[in-house]
Amino acid sequence: MKKMRNRTVPLVLIGLLLWSNSPKAQTDSTTTTPAVQRPVRALWIVRDALTSRGKVHTAVEEAAAGGITDLLVQVRGRGDAYYNGTLEPRASEIEAKPSFDPLAVVLEQAHASGLKVHAWVAVNLIASATTLPSSHPTSSGSLSGRSPRQLGWRRRPSEVRSL
How many structural domains is the chain composed of? Predict the structure, then answer.
């Protein structure tokens, strides 16, 4: 008898699990129509397209004209930010334009065109494989400048000679 009870409990649990995942069990009495999923046609916008208002406008305009529905926008490149923020230093390509916020411009133009925007954050990159930026990351307070030993570096990036 005990053996039979030991087999029955798992079978009942499996049955409940299967029933709860069935479409009939999941229908809500107040909802009569299923949710319609929209097709997604996404385009990656890399940081090179975020260096000026004109480049952003061109990228968004061409995406909308090509039937794109979503933009995956690279807002962090190599330890630098393509948006106005305080956690990472601004990218050297937009440092001279303090009032220019590439992400804000993308959001404004994309939403006006009916596109969704998703931020793409490259978290593992901090510098180029061949050179370290002259003004960044050492002088800007980024991780590589503050704690080079955490990255496996023996010296600060400013002390490393060009490869």
Answer: 2
